[in-house]
Amino acid sequence: MIDKLLVRPNPHNDESQESFLYRLAIQNHRTISDVSTLLSRSDSVSSRTRNRGDNGTSSFEKAARGLFNKREWNDRFKILFDLQFQKFCALCFAENPYVRTLWDFKKYVSCHKHGVALTNICDTCARPIRISSLFRRTCVDCNSQVISKINSVASQDPFSELIAKTMERKDISITEQLDVLLMETEQLKPYLRLVENGNMKAVMDLRKSNLYEYAALQSKAIHLMHDGQRSIQLLADQLDDRLSKLTTGNAISPYRFVINNPSGYKFSKVLKASLASNQMVRNDGELSLKLICTLWQIEEKALRKAFKEVLPGISLKKNQVPLSTFARYSKQIFTICKAR
To answer: 10 Å Cβ neighbour count for 143?
Structure first.
């Protein structure tokens, strides 16, 4: 039982459970494995049911179990968390040395209190920082100080602020908070790709190597989410450039997940507007009828009839239509489809 430990520091409301167990271990001269085992031997009470009473469990143990544990959530939510390394705000940690729950969220990359980017790699060996390194104050890989300098470079990120505000809400449960963040993270994904010209690998690599630059990229993606016209123009320009080397299908492949679920992404409006905008002036391509039907959620039979009505001489034998033709007549075609 965790109550057997003689030194019992008070847990902080915004502290991760893993952080609290490390502090318990250090102050009681035990290993983290010992403390984790003591906690696991007691009746299992997850942080998702922390408001439920539990007879026979002390208030101290309830407090320990009630802290947020990123590792106990199911696969649906694990995409939200950093599980392999530990980000931290050096200013927060200098004020009070414990790990904040917010730091465990992948998209929380800029401290909403101090306005600086979080740190996730060792300055000396450039390897990811682990939670044990924070409490040792030295990198477990190279033994250099992990808080040798305080990051004071300003870094404002609206999405990090959104995560903080969502997790502070008292009117919804933790599961509902995570559902909100999962939905917002999904909505952000195509805009992150848009900022990096469809290259999600570049986005992921940047998040691992430079959180200051990633925070700027994420902030730019958020602003694009709220600027429809700019997003449409940027996507049209990128597609126009990609069409010089690729087929239309391959050019828009980074957004295939949006095409396959258009009602699930706000970005589908940007994608549809770009394809129908006639702004791709340098290059033309072929747009498949299947893609049009999937993205606009209409039946192929109705689409074919609309094309024949607007353009009686058009040939659709290859189940494709020139992108420029589609853009020029899309408004008329969809008006006819909706009327039916």
So the answer is: 12
CA pair distance 297, 134, nearest whole angstrom: 51
Q: Which DSSP string do the residues of 63-81 spell out, in sequence order?
A: HHHHSB-GGGS-HHHHTTB
Nearest in space to 28 (alpha carbons), one of 64, 70, 72, 56 = 64
What's the pTM value of the predicted model, to 2 decimals?
0.87
Return the ∠ at Cα 96 (arms to 94 and 127), rounded to 5°: 55
- What does R_g of the chain's alpha carbons equal in angstroms? 26
105 is written with which tokens? 């969220």
Query: How is the chain split into domains, by residue range?
Result: 2-72, 90-225, 239-339
Q: CA distances (Å), 320 to each of 33, 128, 247, 276, 304, in order?
A: 61, 48, 12, 15, 10
pLDDT digits (tens, 9 = 90+) for 253-272: 999 999 999 999 999 999 99
pLDDT tens-digit profile of 134-154? Answer: 999 999 999 998 876 666 667
Number of C-beta neighbours around residue 336 at 10 A: 16
Q: Which string of b and e fits 114-124 if b means at least 16 CB within 10 Å?
A: bbbbbbbbbee
Residue 145: beta bridge partners?
A: 138
